[in-house]
Amino acid sequence: MRILIATDGSKEATAALQTAKRLLRPGGREIDLLCVAPRRRKGASDKAQENGYEQRLLREATQILERAKASFSRNEVPINLLAAIGSPAAAIVNRAVEYDLTVIGPKGHGTGSIGGLGPVASRVVEHAHAPVLVAREMRGEGGIRVLAAVDGSTASLHAIETLTEIFDLTSAEVCLMHVAETPWTELGLEEDWVTYSEEEQAQSEAGVMEKELLREGEDVVEQARALLRAQNVLVTTRIDEGDPANEILSEADRGQYDLVVAGATGARDLKHSMLGSVSLKIAWNAPCSVFIVREPE
For the chain, which terminal residue's Cβ has fewer other Cβ atoms within 10 angstroms, N or C? Predict the structure, then answer.
């Protein structure tokens, strides 16, 4: 298994590295540490000055990589150091296709302390072909708590399968969560619909649709549960109603999870921002690490 971990030596990147070490399945891994120094803006300078500047950047990038490598135990896994100059986002996205997993911190140097994603992490999340782990600092020291969003799509089921292949689920607890989108938001119902009796609501078009969505949700979580039966993991399920991204984010915070898993669909290039809105919103706003897996080709 090949894993790419991007670092720029920032606090967030260092925390991402430590989180990845704790979450990843031990053994059978080859890790490449990548540090990309942004290219100098073009200006009035001769070739000799430019070459000297780039050599200094590469030395600094190598020093960052050596410090990151030192955090691993000797002989723990094969570790390769990759230093480059250019656009960090483009370099990471272009290399990601060669790896089973790309790990990145939510922010890098100079992006402030407010939540969300920095510009590099945002582009990697939206455009990388392979699975991406936005690794944030772990919440606890015990077994990991995983919240897996499932909607029955190929992408969400593929995300569960990939989770079992890459992460160490020993003593983990996994909650499979399905959110049925509230039907009356799409039906143009009268404003006083919520004042109907339970019987009137149940017999209405919205009520019938709601029951059907909940039945489908039960099938979805059972399908996902079947993919985890071979794992030594405690599995719980929950089915909620409402806006999927908002409900998942609320549960991630309320349940003190360490990792949210989401499948994603959308175009995969640097010119278009087409990642599914739910997975992108989760990656931006989750209080913990987020594992995003694209729909298979």
Answer: C
